[in-house]
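Record type: monomer structure entry
Structure origin: computed from sequence
Chain ID: A
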Amino acid sequence: MIQAIEYEKDFYAWLMFNVGLIRDGRLTEVDAKNIAEELEGMGISQRHQLVNRLVVLIAHLLKWKYQSLRRSSSWRGTIIEQRRRLRQLVKDSPSLKYQIDEKITEAYQDAVLLASNDTGIPEKYFPSICPFTFRQVMDDNFYPEPEEEK
C-alpha cells in the first residue's frame, strides 16, 4: 500500500526504490502490479513511436511524389531523419520489425491526412493503399518519382 501511494506521489522515487529492491534480490517486496503496468506501457509506447515515425516519413514521401515542384531541403531532411530514427528504433527493439507491414498499413491513412493538410491536395487524389514498400520507405536512395501536380 505504501508503494502504491509513493507510485502516485513521486514516480521517480517509486521507480528508484523498486530498482533497488530488484537489485538487492528482494523480489517479494517489489510493487509488481505497477511495474508490470509500466513495462506494458513501455511496449505500447514503442509501437506508437514506430507508427508515428512511419506517418511522418510516408507523408513526406507522398509530398515528395505529389508536389515535386515544392520539394525542399526541409522535406529531404525530415525523410532522412525519420529513416535514421526508425532504423534505431528497430535496432533497439528488433521484434518491432515483425509488425512493420501492419504498422505501415495503420500509418498510411494518417500519412495521407497529414500530406493532404500540408499540400492542399484532397485525400481522394492519393492512392487508397500505401504505394511504397517498407524496403522503399527505408532505402536512403529512394525518393519517389513525381506524379502530375494536382
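Annotation 1: The chain has a mean pLDDT of 93.
Annotation 2: Residues 45-138 form one domain.
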